[in-house]
Design goal:
There is one protein chain. This protein has two domains: 1-23 and 213-232, no CATH class; 24-208, Jelly Rolls (Sandwich), CATH 2.60.120.560. 14% of the residues lie in helices and 36% in strands. The chain is built from two helices and twelve strands; from the N terminus they run H-E-E-E-E-E-E-E-E-E-E-E-E-H. Mean pLDDT is 86; it is low at 1-22. The longest helix is centred in the C-terminal third of the chain and has 18 residues, at 214-231. With 232 residues, it is mainly beta. The protein has a six-stranded antiparallel β-sheet with strand order 1-12-3-8-9-10, with no helix packed on it.
Length: 232
């Protein structure tokens, strides 16, 4: 009989672990990569394991995917080429279609704020982020939803908090993005002259990077608990 009081915590923990473990990581970059006045390709259709960019119904290259992607990455500006806000440096985690620029998240030319460019609506600032500090890292989660034509960016989020519960103050939603979300390549960019940025903690997956909603986890736990009790 004592075991009956242990089951709920075991079941809830198991459900949460299983939900997080089910996330499909499509790409990850071990360690970090520093870019000095360059724009190397991170992943493209020649090195995407399993052809996840173009395979099957979720073809991110032709903008027909119905499954959102979550891209998590950390950026640290190491050298901004002495820019004081009038231009001279930019950096980005940049979606590309062949060589065409698509949505980019980072820092725009002529601004000292974390922001973005290359999408519908022009350059923009990211909610919750002000001026970057050289040498101080910032973490971003970029969700691209081609079916909805939207991009959502979270600035320094706590991934232990459910997606729907993330504070509005750190959440930027860009709608009407269309082909700005179409890509077959992702570049890591920093420039110009001696401008440099270190990118780290990069993962791309087709399920949320945030913990599952408590409601669904608890419902799953209760269902499994009921099944276990019936079998006793």
């Amino acid at each position: 009989m004592k075991l009956r009081f242990v089951f709920p915590s075991i079941v809830v923990t198991s459900v949460l672990i299983a939900a997080q473990a089910s996330a499909a990581v499509l790409f990850s970059l071990p360690g970090s990569q520093t870019v000095v006045n360059g724009e190397p390709s991170l992943v493209n259709t020649t090195n995407d394991a399993g052809d996840w960019i173009t395979a099957g119904a979720n073809n991110y290259s032709d903008n027909t995917s119905t499954t959102p992607l979550y891209m998590q990455f950390t950026m640290r500006v190491d050298n901004n080429n002495g820019e004081s806000g009038g231009g001279g440096f930019f950096t980005a985690f940049n979606l590309r279609k062949t060589t065409a620029e698509r949505l980019a998240v980072g820092n725009t030319w002529g601004s000292l704020n974390w922001g973005g460019f290359g999408g519908g609506g022009g350059d923009f600032n990211i909610n919750g982020a002000s001026a970057y500090a050289v040498g101080t890292p910032a973490t971003f989660v970029l969700k691209i939803d081609q079916a909805a034509g939207s991009a959502t960016i979270w600035f320094n989020p706590d991934t232990a908090v459910a997606e729907a519960s993330q504070p509005a103050g750190i959440t930027t939603v860009r709608t009407g993005q269309g082909i700005a979300l179409q890509f077959d390549d992702i570049w890591l960019r920093a420039g110009n002259n001696n401008g440099s940025t270190t990118f780290s903690g990069i993962t791309i997956q087709n399920t949320t990077v945030f913990v599952p909603e408590p409601g669904s986890a608890v419902l799953g736990a209760l269902g499994l608990l009921t099944l276990l009790r019936r079998r006793r």
